[in-house]
UniProtKB/TrEMBL annotation, chain A:
Residues 33-315 form the Luciferase-like domain. Belongs to the NtaA/SnaA/DszA monooxygenase family. Signal peptide: none annotated. InterPro entries: Diverse_substr_monoxygenases (IPR051260), Luciferase-like_dom (IPR011251), Luciferase-like_sf (IPR036661), NTA_MOA (IPR016215). PANTHER family: ALKANESULFONATE MONOOXYGENASE-RELATED (PTHR30011), C2H2 FINGER DOMAIN TRANSCRIPTION FACTOR (EUROFUNG)-RELATED (PTHR30011:SF16). The keyword Chaperone does not apply. Keywords: Flavoprotein, FMN, Monooxygenase, Oxidoreductase. This is LLM class flavin-dependent oxidoreductase. SUPFAM superfamilies: Bacterial luciferase-like. The keyword Flavoprotein applies. It comes from the Bacteria.
TrEMBL record, chain B:
Belongs to the NtaA/SnaA/DszA monooxygenase family. InterPro entries: Diverse_substr_monoxygenases (IPR051260), Luciferase-like_dom (IPR011251), Luciferase-like_sf (IPR036661), NTA_MOA (IPR016215). Residues 27-395 form the Luciferase-like domain. PANTHER family: ALKANESULFONATE MONOOXYGENASE-RELATED, C2H2 FINGER DOMAIN TRANSCRIPTION FACTOR (EUROFUNG)-RELATED. It comes from Actinacidiphila acidipaludis. It comes from the Bacteria. GO terms for molecular function: monooxygenase activity. This is NtaA/DmoA family FMN-dependent monooxygenase. SUPFAM superfamilies: Bacterial luciferase-like.
């Protein structure tokens, strides 16, 4: 249930979603765009520095296994849009030493990859960033992406058929697999207790091996032994995020994530989605835990509504089609956007992930216009208040699940 | 002088998880924190090294059924550290060890191509072939390989990756705002590759990177390993640290290049070596002895013994003679997750050698283990070490070195400050970086896409084991 507390409401959280030259397919042709630099470190360093100057909670970095396509289900052969991208985890790692406070949340596909590799990659991102790592998990059931790996096959996908029992079964299965994957990633993060490294010169032991744990995960899709090769990361558990549009991913958020990105088109829908996620959360026994629900919005921000609308039309014209998105598209003023955010917060949304339609314009509108407006209204931080991403999101550093097991009564009894 | 002096290539190995790394030294720092990696990388770059090198092992080592706790345990993820190091260095090459058994070509190719972009052309891939089911238990696909099939998979893996790297020529991105043409080729990145181990198709989503592909390293010493290197690698990481063994290995491997249509300087041979420096040779020898005793404690000596003996010897006295019993021959059941176990190809013969040596020199078990495992490659004053390194390279025992410091993160500092200037004075090591990519540092010519694909086509027609040779453990599927 949405529970508005206007007076005591905690400050809102703000993230920005970075993808190529922006989310509009014609963004790369805008005057300020740097389409030739998309594959350089300097480009990404500049964007994240801009986001950090706006005191944002975190940036997300989009990724996909396959080449971008104008179709959500199939490849295309278009040549007039941005194509090609770099591995998002590596972009985040490349930027980490250049930034200080902002969270870094790369996207990673969990359908074809190894949880063991991804777990240590994100743990390491947490080390290189001093506790600012997150992970956005993404499912891929596209047949053409499966062919890139050649290990499994998926039936052809058609948007119109997504409601059929066959398609639903494939989707449900993929999200169950994703939940198992996140479970493995999280267990591996906990597979070393914080003080496992003892460097005890007297006994010659580098670690206390009683504080390392096999995770012995056995699921329907795979099993993984553990422990990780990488010690527990600074945050204990880096922040896990998923984008969710319907029941299966809502359940994944409720079961496994710290933050869910959702795509309501108005405040009522936002309230309904929050309620559904809370129900899944309770069902998973996580009612006491903080799970943030962030609303995604594609934004075009200008000094007047008319200018923003005109820019959208110009972009659409260049793209040859009206822009459509899973998320609501907001074309207007930073002030107007601040009003909208306030309204959705009342519906239980605790933060927003803004997708700038064009970079750098809309990114700078967020950091230089929207943020000051939110600060003026007293709903956004005026300085970073924490050194870790969990800290910025108000998430405590969690206890290690295995540390509890070690001191369990059963063990004590056995030792007697 | 008849022939021009060879230029030495130098690299820094980040101290690893075996007993070479002395963690008990009060100066020893973190093996995990990024500051340690940044320190080693910055030192290496200050000294104009070719590259920094990271090893990898995908399961914590065990001995006698327990996680091995006497050496450093744990390391961070290779790609993530290298990408972060790209931010704190400008020219230094970034070499990562990535296994060809527990990965898939599409993903690894994306990661290396990304690293190459993000570092401006400084990525290198050390292709290793560890194969064991023990490590496979950490992976959903669980696949492990019969020992004799692992290089076949490595070769097919590398071929598949080469196909992916070559799927973009480099001229496809116009990104022309005026005309609206982003790609000049509607099929940029398209590939299809079908061999026994891999059947993959689609479009690769990372455009051609500055070096075209990462520099390829091979580390492995068997017949198959050498052949793999001769056919496919740009450099070899070897264990041959003596002049004699170095020259024999060098001649052997360089001699294999011609049949692949390659010239001798297209494959660099770089042994991993240790060193101890002192004000004088005598002082360095004294330091070296002390370091060896820290590297091989009594406990460690017994553990080494168990690895060869393949039995539980926990009651054995390290300060007494070698055990009277013989090693158990067969699959090593004592030590898991350790590539060096395979160095003992004939345990009985090795044990006989050790016994003879212990007898002759009147060595206790610990002293013997120090003798056979702990010798540093180069010991002496900076002058002595610079001379020895140069001799090694000029007499074709290697093309350079991967230096393995025993101390994290400061173990390279004195080498950078004292030995490198002497090599520079001799005119055998660069005083400034001349190029910006690792290929340029190594004196390798640019990757030629046509030759890359030709090489793949040639090797794909060879007979290959079927996909069934990837044994699946248990229910692992996906
Ligand atoms: C100098 C050297 C370094 C190696 N480094 C690694 C490593 O970091 N990770 C790994 O899994 N294997 C490593 N290996 C193991 C090799 O990839 C290979 O599995 C092993 O040497 C057995 O192959 P062989 O029979 O051809 O020697 C290394 C081998 C050598 C010689």
């Amino acid at each position: 249930m949405p529970q508005p507390h206007p007076a005591s409401q905690p400050a809102l959280h703000l993230a920005v979603a970075l993808d190529g030259a922006g989310w509009h397919p014609a963004a790369w042709r805008e005057p300020g765009a740097r389409p030739k630099d998309l594959f350089t470190a300097a480009y990404w360093a500049g964007l994240v520095a801009e986001a950090e100057s706006g005191l944002l909670d975190f940036v997300t970095i989009e990724d996909s296994l396959g080449l971008q396509s104008s179709s959500p289900t199939e490849p295309d052969r278009r040549t007039g849009q941005v194509r090609g991208r770099l591995d998002a985890v590596q972009i985040a790692a490349r930027i980490a030493p250049l930034t200080h406070r902002i969270g870094l949340v790369p996207t990673a596909v969990v359908t074809h990859t190894e949880p063991f590799h991804l777990s240590k990659a994100i743990a390491t991102l947490d080390y290189v960033s001093g506790g600012r790592a997150g992970l956005r998990v993404q499912v891929s059931v596209r047949p053409h992406e499966a062919e890139l790996f050649g290990r499994r096959t998926f039936p052809p996908l058609r948007l119109d058929d997504l409601g059929t029992p066959g398609a639903r079964a494939v989707i449900a299965d993929s999200f169950d697999e994703a939940a198992d994957y996140v479970e493995v990633v999280r267990r591996l993060w906990d597979s070393w207790e914080d003080d496992a490294e003892i460097r005890d010169v007297a006994t010659g032991r580098f670690i206390d091996r009683a504080k390392l744990h096999y995770i012995d995960f056995e699921g329907r899709h795979f099993r993984v032994k553990g422990p990780s090769i990488t010690p527990r990361p600074p945050q204990g558990q880096p922040v896990v995020v998923a984008l969710a549009h319907r029941t299966e991913p809502f359940r994944l958020v409720g079961r496994s994530a710290d933050v869910g990105f959702v795509t309501p088109h108005d405040a009522d829908e936002a309230g309904r989605i929050v309620a559904e996620i809370r129900a899944h959360q309770a069902e998973a026994g996580r009612a006491e835990e903080t799970v943030h629900v962030f609303a995604d919005l594609v934004v075009l921000l200008d000094d007047t509504d008319a200018t923003a609308a005109a820019r959208l039309s110009r972009l659409d014209e260049r793209a040859g089609a009206a822009f459509t998105s899973d998320a609501r598209v907001f074309a207007g003023t930073p002030d107007g956007l601040a009003d909208l955010l306030a309204g959705w917060r009342e519906a239980g949304i605790s933060g927003f992930r803004l997708r700038p339609a064009a970079i750098p314009h809309d990114l700078e509108q967020i950091t230089r216009r929207l943020v000051p407006e939110l600060q003026r209204r007293g709903v956004f931080r005026t300085a970073y208040e924490a050194g870790t991403l969990r800290g910025l999101l108000g998430l405590p550093r969690p206890a290690n699940r295995y540390a509890a097991v070690v001191s369990s009564p059963a063990e004590t009894t056995a030792a007697v | 002088m008849s022939k021009p002096l060879k230029q030495i290539h130098l690299a820094a190995h980040f101290p690893g998880v075996n007993n070479t790394t002395v963690w008990s030294d009060p100066a020893a720092g973190s093996q995990i924190e990024f500051s340690s990696f940044a320190h080693v990388a910055r030192t290496a770059e200050r000294a104009k090294f070719d590259f920094i090198f990271l090893a990898e092992g995908l399961r914590l080592r065990e001995q006698g059924g327990e996680i091995y706790d006497l050496d450093v345990v744990g390391r961070p993820d290779t790609f993530t550290v290298l990408a972060a190091l790209a931010a704190v260095t400008d020219r230094l090459g970034l070499a990562g060890t990535i296994n060809s058994t527990f990965n898939e070509p599409y993903e690894v190719a994306r990661q290396f191509a990304s690293l190459d972009h993000l570092s401006g052309g400084r990525a290198a891939w050390n292709v290793v072939t560890s194969w064991d089911a023990f490590t496979g238990e950490n992976f959903r696909r669980g696949g492990f390989l019969a020992q004799e099939d692992r290089y076949e998979r490595a070769r097919q893996f590398l071929d598949a990756a080469r196909v992916l790297f070559a799927s973009w020529r480099g001229d496809e991105i116009a990104a022309d705002k005026e005309s609206g043409v982003f790609l000049t080729d509607a099929d940029a990145g398209r590939f299809a590759h079908r061999v026994a181990q891999f059947d993959i198709r689609g479009r690769f989503n990372v455009p051609r990177s500055p070096q075209g592909r990462p520099v390829i390293f091979q580390a492995g010493d068997s017949e198959e390993g050498r052949e793999f290197a001769a056919s496919s690698a740009d450099a070899i990481f070897t264990r041959h640290g003596t002049l004699e063994a170095g020259r024999a290995f060098y001649a052997d491997v360089k001699g294999r290049l011609a049949k692949y249509g390659r010239a001798a300087d297209e494959l660099k041979i770089l042994p991993g070596v240790t060193y101890v420096l002192g004000g004088t040779d005598a002082e360095a020898q004294e330091k070296a002895r002390a370091i060896r005793r820290m590297q091989v404690s009594g406990q460690t000596a017994v553990k080494f013994l168990e690895q060869l003996w393949n039995r539980d010897l926990s009651d054995h006295d390290p300060d007494g003679p070698l055990p009277a019993v013989d090693p158990l021959v067969g699959e090593n059941l004592v030590a898991k997750g350790r590539a060096s176990v395979r160095m003992f190809r004939d345990p009985l013969a090795t044990a006989a050698e050790w016994r003879a040596l212990a007898e002759a020199k009147k060595l206790t078990t610990r002293e013997l283990i120090i003798e056979v495992t702990g010798r540093q490659t180069f010991i002496g004053s900076p002058e002595t070490v610079a001379h020895a390194l140069n001799e090694f390279v000029q007499t074709d025992a290697s093309d350079g070195f991967i230096l393995v410091p025993h101390l994290t993160p400061s173990g390279l500092d004195d080498f950078a400050d004292t030995v490198v200037p002497l090599l520079q004075e001799r005119g055998v090591f660069r005083t400034e970086y001349e190029g910006s990519t690792l290929r340029e540092h190594l004196g390798l010519s640019p990757v030629d896409p046509a030759r890359e694909t030709a090489a793949v086509t040639a090797s794909s027609t060879a007979t290959v084991p079927t996909a069934d040779t990837v044994t699946r453990t248990g229910r692992a599927r996906a």
